[in-house]
């Protein structure tokens, strides 16, 4: 690209585009150039199965002045996925927040690239009806308060011009932008190291069963191996620090632990869900998700806490930290004072979560085979045994029940006097 052309393009300034290589962001890249901006195409390697070289070539061919790829996989695992495991984070009792978890590290990397490249604005391809526009933009403004954000899918001059997919494809043809034909798979996807999401298209009917060939990461449970696969996950302070599998192989690096958990779950069909969720902006949305490794690691962590975590600590953590942190992640409130406060509560709740959980996976199911801890002794087999008294005095239970029954007796008498039935 000539210096004269660069100068002409930069008349409106330089912007950093979150580029995926797909249809929407490729169209947005061309449209931004058409509007007179110079565009830096930013891409995050967050573990998606992507041809990054092809994406680079495509962005430069369309006209980006530079393509920047940033590897954020380790910080994604260690700073977002692992705290989510420590808190057993979950949204609406079923969604493990795979998309939400990725947004803070992507936003942070994009702002850093924008600063390094001298961009006055950042831009993205999020739709005006989704959660991601909120997650990204709140993160942008927290990380760099004076940044400008260009939001094509909320600009009338853009969404009126590209009212449907046919308009996008026609513009791509006009500009010579190569696109993959996806009419046979009418849905959109978003992928990272933890999961992949599927939504829109035929999935917008919540009563439509996803076709078998939609699922990408996990084998169909019916086609999974006929023999259970066993493995052990070792935790220290609530963090999965080792995974032992295939008869003695071990991995201890954080990313490798996550990747190995992914591989085990994927080949055994574990981690699929199909839900209707409540988006932050007020709409309901149907989504299908594959979250293989995170499903294994979180479930094993939940199980170990039953053995080693104090009852009241667990209750307070569940009632406040888990629910609040999950909601903050989902709503895009990671870079906020309240989320910083909640995250500070995670380590104290996990200092005693040490031990190992033996597991098996079989045709879409995770089975806990056993759990143990060499350091935490809250569980006493002798005390809990039905075959011996141990240090627990059975007669003490009479007083315990009598005290608990005081208010219930009063409540029962009051209802009886009023003639009310249970």
From TrEMBL:
It comes from the Eukaryota. Its EC number is 6.3.4.5. Residues 187-411 form the Arginosuccinate synthase C-terminal domain. Residues 14-178 form the Arginosuccinate synthase-like N-terminal domain. InterPro entries: Arginosuc_syn_C, Arginosuc_syn_N, Arginosuc_synth, Arginosuc_synth_CS, Arginosuc_synth_type_1_subfam, AS_cat/multimer_dom_body, Rossmann-like_a/b/a_fold. It is an enzyme of class 6 (ligase). One of its GO terms (biological process) is L-arginine biosynthetic process. Belongs to the argininosuccinate synthase family. Type 1 subfamily. This is Argininosuccinate synthase. It comes from Lipomyces starkeyi NRRL Y-11557.
């Amino acid at each position: 690209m000539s210096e004269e052309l660069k100068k002409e393009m930069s008349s409106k300034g330089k912007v950093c585009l979150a580029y995926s290589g797909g249809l929407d962001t490729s169209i947005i890249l061309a449209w931004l150039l058409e509007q007179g901006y110079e565009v830096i195409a930013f891409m995050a390697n967050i573990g998606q199965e992507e041809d990054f070289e092809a994406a680079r070539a495509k962005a430069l061919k369309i006209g980006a002045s530079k393509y920047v790829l940033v590897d954020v996989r380790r910080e994604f695992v260690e700073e977002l996925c692992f705290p989510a495991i420590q808190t057993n984070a979950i949204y609406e009792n079923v969604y493990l927040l795979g998309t939400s978890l990725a947004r803070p590290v992507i936003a942070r990397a994009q702002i850093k690239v924008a600063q390094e490249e001298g961009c006055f604005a950042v831009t993205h391809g999020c739709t005006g009806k989704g959660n991601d526009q909120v997650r990204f933009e709140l993160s942008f403004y927290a990380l760099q308060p004076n940044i400008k954000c260009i939001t094509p899918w909320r600009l009338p001059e853009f969404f009126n011009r590209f009212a449907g997919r046919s308009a996008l494809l026609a513009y791509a043809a006009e500009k010579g932008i190569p696109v993959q034909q996806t009419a046979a798979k009418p849905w959109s996807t978003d992928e990272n190291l933890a999961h992949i999401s599927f939504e829109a298209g035929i999935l917008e009917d919540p009563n439509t069963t996803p076709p078998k060939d939609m699922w990408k990461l996990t084998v169909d449970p019916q086609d999974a191996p006929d023999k259970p696969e066993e493995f052990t996950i070792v935790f220290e302070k609530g963090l999965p620090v080792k995974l032992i599998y295939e008869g003695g192989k071990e991995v201890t690096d954080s990313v490798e632990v996550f990747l190995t958990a992914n591989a085990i779950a994927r080949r055994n069909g574990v981690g699929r869900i199909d839900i209707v969720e409540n988006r932050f902006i007020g709409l309901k949305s149907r989504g299908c998700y594959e979250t293989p490794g995170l499903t294994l690691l979180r479930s094993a962590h939940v199980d170990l806490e039953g053995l080693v975590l104090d009852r009241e600590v667990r209750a307070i953590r569940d009632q406040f930290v888990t629910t609040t942190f999950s909601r903050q992640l989902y709503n895009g409130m990671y870079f906020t004072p309240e989320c910083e406060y909640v995250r500070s509560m995670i380590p104290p709740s996990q200092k005693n979560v040490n031990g190992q959980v033996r597991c098996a996976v079989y045709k879409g199911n995770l089975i806990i085979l056993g759990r143990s801890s060499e350091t935490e002794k809250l569980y006493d087999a002798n005390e809990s045994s039905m075959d011996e008294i141990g240090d627990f005095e059975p007669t003490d239970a009479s007083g315990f029940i009598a005290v608990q029954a005081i208010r219930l007796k009063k409540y029962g008498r009051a209802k009886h006097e009023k003639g009310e039935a249970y």
